[in-house]
Amino acid sequence: MQPELPKHLLGQTGLEVTPICAGGAPLASIPQNFGYEVPAERAYATLDAIFDSPINFLDSSNSYGHGESEKRIGAVIGERGGLPAGFVLATKADRDPVTGDFSGARVRRSAEESLERLGLERFTLFYLHDPEHISFAEAVAPGGPVEEMVKLRESGLALHLGVAGGPVEFMADFLALGVFEVLLTHNRFTLVDRSSERLLSLASNQGVGVVNGAPFGGGLLARGTSYTNRYAYQPASAATLKSVAAMEDVCGRYGVTLRAAALQFSLREDRICSTVVGTASPEHVVELVATASAELPAPLFEELASLCPPQSEWLW
Question: Which CATH number does the domain 8-313 belong to among 3.30.430.20, 3.40.50.410, 3.40.50.300, 3.20.20.100?
């Protein structure tokens, strides 16, 4: 029997979500990003494990594996006769993978593609994904992606809107619009990077729900420096690698895995409603629930905080 997970209100959406959100990117089998293949049957078994677990939040995107993540999720939803009651499935509108088009018309096509793959009539939560690929002026222009997102909500095809992206100041501009109910920030609130600190406060003050993605920074904070020298899918700085190595030593002294400390660092933050963790095996789903429920000593996090690299090393 897995331990129950508490549920948090996701901003002012009225949605209640668990502190763990299962990330659907690895389910698409993207070895160039994650370093391993995920056959369809393994993805299906993982999705069954997610739906049968205490986790009630799953995140995907139109672009993950050119739609393969959504296709696999849709197949399992269909086999199970629909989403479990109270389950929150989020996906994202993406630019055209070939042309880079991110117009309002492209957002509409992205939504239609995702609904078909998932076998759904509407989205519970629909994000504008990585808008940093265009300028803010282009994003908010008449006929642009933000206007189309609002139309999707007004028509009932999307019950709630979110924005998911990276650069902190750019995301702050989108929060200021007052359009988006949820913010997904990634790789910028971890043991080695606090870039999103201001974003968390802005969102919290506006009643916007915060979802924190990539608490492991793409793997470095899950498996350590012996596994990879990359953070957020790019080479990590020498200062960051030195900090992670020191954190591994501290965790070892406390008898805690770096992975557990990295996950709980995000879970301990009151301004974060849920933390997205990519998963691609039933065993990992069980591990996530157990790690989220474990009690780790507070002094551990005080020591880890002292080892965070300087702001100059953060992504921002």
Answer: 3.20.20.100
